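Sample pair:
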Amino acid sequence: MEDKIVLLRFVAGISYGFLIYLLGLLRIVSLNNLNTFAWTGAAVLYAVTIFLTYRFFKPSKAFNLYLRGLLTFYTSWLLTSYVLNDLYSIM
């Protein structure tokens, strides 16, 4: 079960990294506000993954519900957006 929780948050992080990159690339969100938007959105999306984890996996421990995959989620979205920005800069 722990692997499924981490995989859910990894996929959510990769998807969110692509979304943030595209929002900056297409100038849907101004570059001045992109940082604030990205970090606020990441916290909201992580809360959504907590809800989805509870709904689909019914973990018995609070650690699995709230913290399992936290580092994976934030690392995956940050690295995805950084690598994409390095390949094709949005500036």
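The mean pLDDT is 94.
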